[in-house]
Amino acid sequence: MLKFEISGQKMTRVDTFAPATDSKLYLKAAFTFSSDWASAAKTAIFRDEVTGESYGAPLNSSGVCTVPAEVLARSTAVHYQTQGNHFHVSLRGDIGSTLITTNEVKVELARSGYTEGQTPAAPSPDAYSQFVANVKADADRAVASAEAAAASASNVANLYANALKKKVRGETVRAGDVSPVEHELGVQVRGVNLLPLPYDAGTQTVSGVTYTVNGDGSVSVKGTATANAAFYLARELTGLTGTVYLRGCPAGGSTSAAGYSIRLNRFLDGAEVTGCADTGEGGHVTLNGETVRVYIVVLTGGTVDLTFWPVLTYDETVAEYVPRAELSAVTVSRYGRNVLNLANCSLAGCVVHGQGVRANISGAYYMELYANYLKEIVQSRDGKALTFSVGNVATNSYIALVLMYTDGTYAQKSSTSRSVTLWLDHQGRTVQHVLLRPMAKSEKFNDTTAVISNLMLEFSDTMSDFEPYKGSTAHATAADGTVEGVKSLSPNVTLLTDTPGVTIEATYHRDLIKVIAALEAALLN
Fold it and tell me: Rounded to two decimals, what is the model's pTM?
């Protein structure tokens, strides 16, 4: 069997086996992968040196495939004498629209004594017994090949099923490629720190090491390990999809003898395998919904007196400990794309006119809308973008988006075009007013017939096509963060929370037409 190791995009052959030419359905190739290949559908590509033809072989769940007979066939005697026989191997992995490739590895072949078309002499009794044994072995290999084919078919089925299923995650959730067919929508609210609190294990001593859970979520670890001493933060954590980052181990850790670390293991095909480890510099792994286990461990002989601050997060930038959020207190609101409700705004210098406003000469120097009903949501989205747009801009005027803070300072962005985007940077300040100016001039306006139409405010960094405001619906969450009552998602739906430090994760089915278009584009590339 040929054996290869893949780390990222680098593939290395690790066996010294010299396969012979001309075998069929016999030679196998086994591959082991780094964690970034975990959710990929894997295909080995075998290239014939003489013909230049390439042959793909899907890997089964164990990372094994059969080497195509075409690349093992002996080439012409002249070619063999001058160049020898060999073929090349590389790997590809498909994760949705993501493609991973590797370098090619050359495999030398030894010349066999088999010549196709020649009939060997009749077998002696001993040779006949060997022939029977070989037939049985061929039958066993045929069964194994059938099982491998079934596993490959299953992998392909899962790949295409996942092509129609997608997750969108963020503090503001919106999907533009959702299926037009109504379907059940899975919505989950998650804190920045994905680890449960309280941890699955409480204060205890394990193999000479005492783990003390502190009130702030940290874990004090002291003692000398007489055997590998594990403390389980989460024995079975489910539902995580995407790249997660593990942190909180003090500097100087190690996964080798007498070392200490925080580890994340995955459960694949019923077996527990390493996902990533943090030894003081962080670790990460890409997950595809499999169950994971997270624990602190001090290996045999290790002596420690340290404090761990465990954090598992989707956010690569989180460098310090963040406690687990109380998810049952989070409210998820379902809005349209436009969150500007004119009926909830206080007006100055203008009056409502349909989906827009017109000037009121008894007002101030500006048309102003105070959308203060949104200030808590705006407060919670520090670092995010807020875009205000209108259908038309008055001559010699501009539009503006202003945040007034309780300390008297303000943040403002203005534009003479139809939209303006303000990136929220509160700097520890508290929002007092969310102020929109659809018309602003240096002199008092007096044209009461001018209508500024199609006012729209959205949590986005770009302007969208106008849509009228739709009333919001609030949905409560369970203690585990699941949200009941949200039954559909569309390009015109926005999900928001009113709690800083939590994200929404929505599962939906993609539009089949758009999936096919994406696959066609991938094939063309």
Answer: 0.48
